[in-house]
Amino acid sequence: MTARGAAEGAGGTGAAGAIIDRYAGVVFDVDGVLLRLHQPIDGAAESLAALRQRGTAVAFVTNNASRTSAQVADTLHAAGIAADAAQVITSSTAAAQLLEPGTRCLVIGMDGLRTALADRGCETVTEPDEADAVVVGWQIDLHWDDLRRATLAIARGARFLGTNADRSYPAPEGPWPGNGATLAALATATGRQPEIAGKPSPALFRAAAERLPAGPLLMVGDRPETDLDGAAALGWDTALVLTGVTSAIEAAAVRPRPTWVLHDLRALFDDAPLAPRDDVVVRPARATDSQAILELWDQAGMLAYTREPERDIAAMLAADAGAFLVAEVAGEPVGVLMGSNDGRRGWINRLAIAPQHRAQGIGRALVAEAEAVMRAGGLPQANLLVFTDNREAQAFWERLGYTASAPVTLRSKRLGAAPVDAC
Ligand SMILES: [Mg+2]
Prior knowledge:
This protein is an alpha/beta fold. The protein is built from 13 helices and 20 strands. 31% of the residues lie in helices and 22% in strands. The strands form 5 sheets. It has a 6-stranded parallel beta sheet. The protein has a 5-stranded parallel beta sheet with strand order 7-6-8-9-12. The protein starts with 24 loop residues before the first strand and ends in a 24-residue tail after the last helix. Magnesium ion binds next to loops.
């Protein structure tokens, strides 16, 4: 978005209470959502404080198996986020809960896993013949002898359990081998695949749910394939937050689509758009739609920004860029979006929804289809323009993962005698 342009999104927004009002409890991933290298992410501390004030129940989940729940809570505290150890579920905690007390465990892992197993009443053994289970978490001083003993125990029938299957750890210098790499070594050696306790497996999410009141739950994460897919499989709503590993452009391609895409955690307090209707059809615009499109633009106050709308419609239909879209209900056009591209960036213009059909997710459906068309055309980015004083439109686009660039206002310039649109 930039500062100058048409009243985009004016027809696509609508309020149905704050997003957060819909949930009995919220589960937060830690890295990339609350913390980045132990530092709080913008908006995280104030949002968690606001949730605490509202009395919203929260829990924290992390696939990091190396730290104890108390250590994670301390790290959150140090970053200004109030957290008790009992609210923190690590993949080590979840792994321990999958074992019966008294289970004899041959352990690869650090403090976090060893403490969780001891708290569960499991016994740690070192010899392959003594092990009922091999439990594998991240261990940065991993030795070949650890792999040798674990391989022997698994080959002799011990249960094979991994805290998490993360392939790599995002170290400041680049990726380090994650616990998934250790598990792959053991799987290769034994021909057996491990059970996984951490995200996206259900064990960790179920452990979090046990700490929250009954009712609708929301999972907030930055990594769709672990945070969101695991929660969605249990029927939870999901929020993809753009402060971690997923960019706004990548977010548009995430399938299945998250319930919400949040610029940061402050967006939890934004008004929620109503759920999309299921009788909306989004299709390419046709010449026979011209009059309906003019009426939609007129109802949205957009004809003030264009001198020759009929010519624009004809030119877009002739160009056949593929993203000039109409939404229809019962065969009647009720929304329009004019997408184009400059060869590298997609541009979204003149999104308008009929007044009686606003706040029903139709704008969101048009944008999703335009993004899909642009992505299929190899465009890496979608841009649009919004007036700086159009707060409603800005909030709409931010909910869809669009971020504001530095506002710049440019005056339009006439080229020769032909009139040029202001937008
Ligand atoms: Mg994360």
